[in-house]
Write a structure and sequence with these properties.
Layout (H helix, E strand, L loop, with lengths): L4 H12 L3 E3 H9 L2 H8 L1 H18 L2 E3 L8 H6 L6 E4 L2 H8 L11 H19 L2 E4 L5 H13 L13
Parallel strand pairs: 1-2, 3-4
Length: about 170
């Protein structure tokens, strides 16, 4: 959450000349605001909608930004099989301003402390799935985009991690 998935993803897709899908936005278009889905249907139902959105996006191809919790659902992880997966990381200090005042359901009670707890819980899954890691904490998004595009154009080597540097 707050690492810049949508911003970076949109710019990477444009640079590569491929479609861009933000699965959270696709869910909102089809089912309404995410906080409402969480409130009315619960997180498990949201994760099912998210898995379906990821499957649809994978069929379309291009660059896909998935919500930070998407990979907690086995069906979503299965749908992402075969994709080059980029993990964007961000420090707690840098993300604090990015998430301030957000309507993210999992942060409704707890703010940055809730964010840190969620990141700690998901860290092992993120590390397992990511083929490349780029930090967005203190770098202009344009530099992160350039690094991701370069990595993908080089074949998106899934055997190494790439740390963006300042």
């Amino acid at each position: 959450m707050g690492a810049g998935k949508s911003s970076v993803g949109k710019r990477v897709a444009k640079a590569l000349g491929v479609p861009f899908t933000d699965t959270d936005r696709a869910i909102v278009r089809e089912h309404g605001p995410i906080p409402g889905i969480f409130a009315d249907r619960g997180e498990p139902e949201f994760r099912e909608l998210e898995a379906a959105a990821v499957r649809t996006a994978m069929a379309t191809g291009g660059v896909i930004a998935v919500g930070g919790g998407a990979v907690t659902h086995a069906s979503t992880r299965e749908a992402m099989a075969g994709a080059s997966i980029v993990l964007l990381t961000v420090s707690p200090e840098a993300v604090a301003d990015r998430i301030a005042g957000s309507d993210r359901p999992l942060l409704a009670n707890g703010g940055i402390d809730a964010w840190q707890t969620i990141m700690d819980e998901r860290a092992a899954t993120y590390a397992e799935l990511a083929h490349a890691v780029f930090d967005t904490s203190r770098r202009p998004m344009s530099h992160v985009v350039d690094d991701v595009v370069a990595w993908l154009r080089a074949g998106g080597d899934t055997s190494t991690e790439n740390e963006g540097t300042a």
